[in-house]
């Protein structure tokens, strides 16, 4: 068995650790590039959302490199993600690949089955250590990401060294002499997790904003998601519940995916004094389209500017940069006005 | 003066509208249903970005009721069956309308969620009755009587067939709205085609046919639609082709359409996928239908 999985940001580091630790041969799909996108889009239904196309691209690239088992997630709706695997299975089979697909359904019985199937002969001690290590890596990755939000706007004239230090993961950050910029603009990023977490998909949104001198705050990191929805850590769960409560005046019910969180976090960050919100999502994403159409009202009532950006295989980088620059200019202007009274 | 409640003619109205109307009328409320879809309704609904055409049309219908009713009935129908959901856009409908059109009359946005249990519908019925000033017993009786008085309409399957026989699959709120579908049924019949729809099959067969899917589709109406399509494809009188009508930006259909065309390919039945939006030109639609039917006729001649 040669196992493969879809990409999402730095998820591959965690999954690689997990599977290798359990003595499973694993093939990480090649990093996502324009080519992945083109292959995926070619064989996907036209109006499927971007993660569907990218996942399919990952699978095709992995299968043609010799993988024979795909592990991915199932789901119970109402977001389309839950039905991805069913459709992808047929598409891949028609392309002539021979493979097995394991779609993990969100119920205890199925998770247990898959767990037993994968862990096989491993001892409990080994399983425990592997999960512990994967968890530690997950936290470390999130830590580095958070640091980058803070450090990037700090030293606008020495960007390269900040980026290098981040890439090295070796404590290089501590060696940098940093000039903390005074009171940078703060922008919260809300929206769909796949677009938020993957730098290829969002065209390095956080980096771009950081280099414009903006302190970014991403509302969902991989670790946050795992703690809230998979492990159901009490602290993370309570934060989630507060966010849901804050969304209620605008959106009265869960609409799948992260739709309601996008609105809840907009309300929460507005209260915390953020300067603006950027809402990112894949084009035609159902939950986020609802959020997008409610956000203007929330933005008015909460008095915080919101920029919605949809991503698909057509998104051009230059167009996105122009919009970001305009938005940042607007926020800077708005803050000056507020200070002057 | 009696209370007036407006019901927008769109989306789930095409499933339950008649029951809703009778329910409210039994409670002594006057009911106004918005008229047929017009161009200006679509323009009004176009204020909402990136949603599918039926949602835009629905919002246009809601706006058309602005000065005609004391309340607008836009229930939040989260789920109508255990383990299943509705499309997120249907779940978020009341919020979508409220936040974008604050000048509309107050909404009756009772939540119906049968994932919580099969009796949630009755809770919703009682709650709804209470909001317009009725006792639980009056609301429940009105509901049960309304449900009992509406019989599902079955269309005949056409009897003897001369020309080609085509299965027409799509959500009722697309097919039955002649403005959105551009009267596709009529157009096909004028081309001499025998059109069979989901109405020709009873619910039991649909549920049975849907079992062929390797994973249950969690959007209820899509599961129903896919079941109907699969049942039609294995109809006693085999179909010559299937036309699947959907709307641009419909999330569920983008995947369900792929599942259906995969099943059709296995059975060697040609499929035409038509995606409608507010820019669809009638001439373009007619051309595609004609070409598809011509192909089916030719194929049938070659086979026999």
Question: What does this protein look like?
Answer:
The complex is a heterodimer of chains A (341) and B (304). Chain A is built from 15 helices and seven strands. Chain A is α/β, with parallel strands linked by helices and 341 residues long. Chain A has two domains: 120 residues, Rossmann fold (3-Layer(aba) Sandwich); 158 residues, Rossmann fold (3-Layer(aba) Sandwich). Chain A has a four-stranded parallel beta sheet, sandwiched between helices. Chain A has a three-stranded parallel beta sheet with strand order 1-2-3, with helices on both faces. In chain A, strand 2, helix 4 and strand 3 form a beta-alpha-beta unit. Chain A is globular. With 304 residues, chain B is of the alpha/beta class. Chain B folds into two domains: 146 residues, Rossmann fold, CATH 3.40.50; 139 residues, Rossmann fold (3-Layer(aba) Sandwich), CATH 3.40.50.11900. In chain B, 48% of the residues lie in helices and 14% in strands. Chain B contains 14 helices and ten strands. In chain B, strand 1, helix 1 and strand 2 form a beta-alpha-beta unit. In chain B, helix 2 crosses helix 3 and helix 11 crosses helix 12. The longest helix of chain B is centred in the last third of the chain and has 22 residues. The radius of gyration of chain B is 20 Å and the shape is globular. The chains are: A alpha/beta (341), B alpha/beta (304). The interface between A and B is large, with 46 and 40 residues.
């Amino acid at each position: 068995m040669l196992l493969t999985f879809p990409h999402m940001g730095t998820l591959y580091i965690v999954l690689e650790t997990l599977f290798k630790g359990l003595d499973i041969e694993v093939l990480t799909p090649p990093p996502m590039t324009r080519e992945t996108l083109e292959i995926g889009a070619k064989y996907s239904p036209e109006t499927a959302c971007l993660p569907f196309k990218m996942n399919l691209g990952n699978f095709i690239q992995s299968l043609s490199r010799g993988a024979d088992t795909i592990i991915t997630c199932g789901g119970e709706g109402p977001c389309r993600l839950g039905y991805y695997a069913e459709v992808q299975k047929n598409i891949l089979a028609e392309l002539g690949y021979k493979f097995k697909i394991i779609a993990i359904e969100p119920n205890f019985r199925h998770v247990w089955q898959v767990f037993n199937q994968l862990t096989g002969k491993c001892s409990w001690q080994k399983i425990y250590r592997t999960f512990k290590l994967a968890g530690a890596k997950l936290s470390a990755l999130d830590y580095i990401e958070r640091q980058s939000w803070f450090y990037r706007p700090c030293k606008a004239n020495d960007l390269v060294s900040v980026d290098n230090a981040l890439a090295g993961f070796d404590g290089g950050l501590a060696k940098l002499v940093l000039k903390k910029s005074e009171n940078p603009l703060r922008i919260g990023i809300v929206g769909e997790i796949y677009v938020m977490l993957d730098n290829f998909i969002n065209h390095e949104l956080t980096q771009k904003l950081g280099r414009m001198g903006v302190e970014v705050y991403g509302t969902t990191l991989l670790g946050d998601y795992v703690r809230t929805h998979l492990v159901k850590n009490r602290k993370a769960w309570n934060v989630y519940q507060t966010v849901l409560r804050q969304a209620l005046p605008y959106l009265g019910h869960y609409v799948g995916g992260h739709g309601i969180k996008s609105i809840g976090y907009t309300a929460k960050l507005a209260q915390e004094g953020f300067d603006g919100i950027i809402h990112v999502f894949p084009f035609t994403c159902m939950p986020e389209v609802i959020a997008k159409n409610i956000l203007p009202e929330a933005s008015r009532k909460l008095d915080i500017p919101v920029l919605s950006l949809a991503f698909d295989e057509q998104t051009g980088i230059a167009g996105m940069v122009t919009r970001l620059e305009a938005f940042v200019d607007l926020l800077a202007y708005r803050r000056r006005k507020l200070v002057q009274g | 003066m009696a209370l007036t409640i407006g019901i927008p003619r769109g989306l789930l109205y095409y499933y339950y509208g008649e029951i809703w109307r009778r329910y409210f009328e039994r409670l002594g409320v006057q009911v106004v249903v918005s008229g047929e879809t017009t161009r200006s309704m679509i323009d009004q609904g176009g204020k909402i970005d990136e949603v599918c055409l039926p949602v835009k049309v629905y919002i246009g219908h809601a706006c058309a009721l602005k000065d005609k009713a004391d309340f607008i009935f836009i229930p939040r129908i989260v789920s109508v069956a255990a383990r299943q959901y509705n499309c997120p856009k249907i779940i978020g409908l009341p919020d979508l309308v409220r936040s974008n059109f604050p000048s509309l009359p107050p909404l009756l946005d009772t939540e119906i969620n049968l994932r919580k249990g099969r009796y949630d519908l009755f809770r919703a019925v009682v709650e709804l009755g209470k909001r317009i000033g009725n006792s639980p017993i009056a609301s429940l009786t009105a509901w049960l009587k309304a449900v009992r008085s509406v019989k599902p309409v079955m269309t005949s399957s056409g009897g003897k067939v001369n020309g080609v026989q085509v299965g027409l699959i799509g959500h009722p709120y697309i097919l039955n709205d002649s403005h959105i579908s551009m009267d596709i049924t009529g157009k096909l019949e004028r081309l001499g085609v025998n059109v069979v729809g989901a109405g020709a099959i009873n619910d039991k067969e649909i549920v049975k046919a849907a079992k062929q899917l390797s994973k249950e589709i969690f959007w209820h109406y899509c599961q129903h639609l896919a079941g109907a399509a699969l049942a039609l494809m294995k109809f006693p009188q085999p179909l010559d082709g299937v036309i699947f009508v959907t709307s641009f930006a419909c999330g569920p259909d983008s995947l369900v359409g792929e599942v259906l065309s995969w099943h059709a390919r296995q059975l060697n039945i040609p499929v035409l996928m038509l995606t409608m939006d507010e820019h669809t030109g009638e001439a373009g639609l007619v051309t595609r239908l004609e070409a598809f039917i011509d192909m089916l006729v030719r194929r049938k001649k070659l086979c026999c």
